[in-house]
């Protein structure tokens, strides 16, 4: 038996389901000449995993969490997140766009930072509130 005997056909793609801690190993079989045309999905233990395999194979999406600048806040940056996953191919461009954003404290948790980010239909919002800095609450004031 040679190594080629064990080679997998290139009609098979493998994914790890992140839907729950079971981490099922998913296998997607496609048409030989049409890699986007799914013939069968195997390895899932529930419907959610089957849907995830279809999504990951045809249009992978990711949640984006990062931080943006904020003026007059108790910290220099505030954490933000997308409300829904966005196409994986747009994650880098969104991070670049968020580098241009600068908020002004105070801000509430859930405040829209970027509406319909990059035309995805998904908003980016703050994931915590941030008070405006005062003499009493500014970061590091306790050691002055
Ligand atoms: S297929 Fe279902 S059971 Fe398996 S990891 Fe995904 S969500 Fe969990």
Can you summarize this structure?
The chain is an alpha+beta fold. Helix content is 14%, strand content 33%.
Reconstruct the topology from this structure.
Blueprint: E1 12-16, E2 25-31, E3 34-42, H1 47-58, E4 61-62, E5 65-71, E6 77-82, E7 86-87, H2 91-98, E8 102-104, E9 112-114, E10 124-126
Parallel strand pairs: 5-8
Antiparallel strand pairs: 1-2, 2-3, 4-7, 5-6, 6-10, 9-10
This protein binds iron/sulfur cluster (SF4).
Shape descriptor: elongated
Q: What hetero molecules are bound to the protein chains?
A: iron/sulfur cluster
CATH architecture of the largest domain: Roll
User: CATH superfamily assignment of the largest domain?
Assistant: CPE0013-like
The proportion of strand residues reads 25-35%
For the largest sheet, list the strands in their spatial order.
8-5-6-10-9
Unreliably modeled segments? none
Number of domains: 2
Q: Write down the overall mean pLDDT.
A: 91
User: What's the CATH topology name of the largest domain?
Assistant: CPE0013-like fold
Order of helices and strands: EEEHEEEEHEEE
Total of helices: 2
Computed Rg: 22 Å
Number of strands: 10
Biggest pleated sheet: 5 strands, mixed
- Return the CATH class of the largest domain: Alpha Beta
**Pairing-aware structural class of the strands and helices?**
alpha+beta
The end-to-end distance, rounded to whole angstroms, is: 73 Å
How much helical structure, as a percent, in the residues? 10-25%
């Amino acid at each position: 038996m040679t190594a080629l005997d064990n080679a997998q056909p290139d009609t098979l793609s493998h994914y790890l389901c992140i839907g729950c801690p079971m981490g099922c190993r998913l296998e997607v079989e496609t048409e030989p000449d049409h890699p986007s045309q799914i013939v069968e999905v195997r390895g899932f233990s529930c419907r959610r995993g089957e849907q995830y395999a279809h999504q990951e194979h045809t249009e992978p999406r990711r949640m984006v969490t990062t931080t943006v600048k904020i003026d007059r806040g108790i910290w220099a940056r505030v954490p933000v997140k997308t409300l829904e996953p966005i196409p994986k191919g747009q994650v880098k461009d969104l991070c670049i766009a968020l580098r241009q954003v600068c908020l002004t404290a105070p801000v509430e948790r859930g405040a829209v930072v970027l509406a319909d980010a990059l035309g995805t239909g998904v908003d980016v919002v703050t994931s915590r509130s941030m008070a405006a800095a005062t003499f009493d609450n500014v970061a590091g004031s306790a050691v002055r």
